[in-house]
Amino acid sequence: MKYHIKISREMIKGAKIAVLPGDPGRVEKTAKTLNPDAVFLTSNREYTSWLSKVCGENILICSTGIGGPSLSIAVEELAGIGIEYFIRIGTTGAIQPYIEIPSLIITTGAVRLDGASKHYAPVEYPAVADIELTNSLIAGAKASGVAYYTGITASSDTFYPGQERYDTFSKYVIKAFQGSLEQWQKLNVLNFEMESATLFTMASAFGLKAGCIASVIVNRTKNETPDDSVLNKAEENLAIALGHSLEYMLSKRGGIIA
């Protein structure tokens, strides 16, 4: 039994794939969308988990909380009970004007604006997604019929200063981040989120496989605040694409799951 996630190897019944939403409140919905017969496992701190099934394979859904530090604990402990494939799902803010709402962004690599990944590899080490998982996510997005984009994500430890937001208590962003939004736009970064850099760095360093797909709920070139009216549709799009992606992964000739 792992200390934080409160899951043992026996509880996941041979599952090799974990789907990682940040929000514990999305775990049940995701698990039951994949399979109505999904079952609750446990909940401790930010880590809520359900066991679902796709194409006869058990799939673990486990929340990670917000940011790299809490995600790193989940990945460490999940890897320790036999998980080999990690798919981060969530919502995101786009920073390129052409990105539609609510479309999908599939991250191919992450700008390491976090701190947790530096505890696993030096800053020169790239945070990149696994190509097989990424291709599966692309196939799922295509099958869902939802508009999607692939590219680089800026992955920040903080929601406010690290993403150059000024709608804060102090209204101040330290010099290191002033102008950073425009910089990432010019470097063709698609969006901000808070976990992919840590996940990709850890997975590569451990010899595991990780991917990330997120649903766009705001485009910061037009608005700083997400519109809650699009959230349900964004989550629905994400769940549909995820289901198709998992089916694609598990039905490929020869499969990728040993």
Write the element-wise H/E pattern from the N-terminal end onward. Answer: EHEEEHEEEHEHEHEH
How does the helix and strand content classify structurally?
alpha/beta
Helix share, percent: 25-40%
Please give the CATH class. Answer: Alpha Beta
CATH topology: Rossmann fold
Q: What can be said about the biggest beta sheet?
A: 5 strands, mixed, barrel
Number of strand segments: 10
**Gross geometry:** globular
The N- and C-terminal alpha carbons lie at a distance of 24 Å
Q: Please identify the oligomeric state.
A: single chain
Question: Can you give the mean pLDDT?
Answer: 95
So how many helices?
6
How many structural domains?
Answer: 1
Q: Tell me the strand order in the biggest sheet.
A: 5-9-8-6-10
**How much beta, percentage-wise?**
25-35%
Radius of gyration: 17 Å
Within CATH, the superfamily carries the name Nucleoside phosphorylase domain
3D architecture notes:
Helix 2 packs parallel to helix 5. Strands 5-9-8-6-10 form a 5-stranded mixed β-barrel, surrounded by 4 helices. The protein starts with 16 loop residues before the first strand and ends in a 7-residue tail after the last helix. It has a single domain, classed as Rossmann fold. The protein is built from 6 helices and 10 strands, in the order E-H-E-E-E-H-E-E-E-H-E-H-E-H-E-H. The model has no long low-confidence stretch (mean pLDDT 95). Strand 8, helix 4 and strand 9 form a beta-alpha-beta unit. The protein has 258 residues and is of the alpha/beta class. Helix content is 29%, strand content 28%. The longest helix is centred in the last third of the chain and has 21 residues.
